[in-house]
Amino acid sequence: MSSLEEIQKLIHEKYDLDPAKLDANASLREAGVDSLTLVEMLFSIEDHFGISVPEKYSDVDTLSALAAAVDEIRAAQAT
Questions:
Q1: What does pLDDT average to over the chain?
Q2: What phi-psi label fits residue 16: left (phi over 0), alpha (psi between -120 and 50 degrees) or beta?
Q3: Mean pLDDT, residues 21-30 taken together
Q4: Rounded CA gap, 45 and 51, in Å?
Q5: Sign of CA dihedral 2, 32, 45, 51
């Protein structure tokens, strides 16, 4: 399962948002996800993947960007 699929599943389970209705490249804020929920999502993603998301990713606003950040962080940890 790709990082994007895992994040979509996590969002569906935790926030009951249908991933099919969330365009992976669209702004989460424009889809109705507020700033607090976005921060909570980042914490959930950190817990799920066992990573720590650095501050430089705080402006990430799409599912595809979140998945790319997760992949980048996990790759950096693996080295």
A1: 88
A2: left
A3: 85
A4: 8
A5: positive
CATH number of 3-78: 1.10.1200.10
The residue-averaged pLDDT of 22-46 equals: 87
Phi, psi of 23, rounded to the nearest 5 degrees = -65, 125
CA-to-CA distance for 35 and 50, rounded, in angstroms? 22
Return d(Cα 64, Cα 8) in angstroms, integer: 10
Contacts of 10 (CB under 8 A, 6+ apart): 44, 45, 48
Provide the residue ranges of all domains of the chain, joining segments of one domain with +: 3-78
Q: Return the amino acid letter for 20.
A: A
